[in-house]
Design goal:
alpha/beta, 4-stranded mixed sheet, 24% helix, 28% strand, globular
Length: 148
């Protein structure tokens, strides 16, 4: 069970994550990342129509709605990122797909035993993604042991 702070689940405002939206230059390139690396399925494409601010596609990956919309790339790379939970086995399968797509894999940050493994990669528009094998509970338990 995760700890609940003053602004936690008992506050009643947030029910969960609705969706993630990424602004990208090329919908097809990002679509391949979502389908081939994250195992997503495309469920909508606006084609040449635009119901929002630009052409868009929707995907479902791991039960999560991911939207991509045409637009300008991020101007630079930062450590701001989205991390997706994966199994140890899936991490290596994802690495192969990432390399096949020619994406830039970032070296992992230093870790302590017990906080899981991560694979970081950038898409073509400077978004940073992390595939992570650990959980918050495991990390909090490990960090608690580290302080003792």
């Amino acid at each position: 069970m995760l700890p609940r702070g003053k602004g936690g689940a008992d506050a009643g405002l947030i029910e969960g994550l609705s969706h993630l939206t990424f602004i990208v230059r090329d919908l097809d390139k990002m679509g391949r990342i979502i389908t081939e690396v994250l195992g997503g399925e495309e469920v909508y494409s606006s084609g040449d129509q635009s119901f929002s601010t630009s052409r868009e596609k929707f995907f479902i990956a791991g039960g999560l709605w991911i939207a991509i919309m045409e637009g300008e790339s991020l101007p630079s790379r930062t450590y701001n990122h989205v991390a997706f939970k994966v199994s140890d086995e899936q991490l290596e399968k994802a690495r192969v797909a990432i390399e096949r797509l020619g994406l830039d894999v970032k070296p992992p940050r230093p870790r302590v035993d017990g906080e899981g493994q991560s694979l970081y990669f950038h898409d073509h528009d400077n978004h940073l993604f992390e595939l992570h094998t650990g959980t918050l509970e495991e990390r909090l338990q490990r960090y608690g042991k580290h302080r003792q």
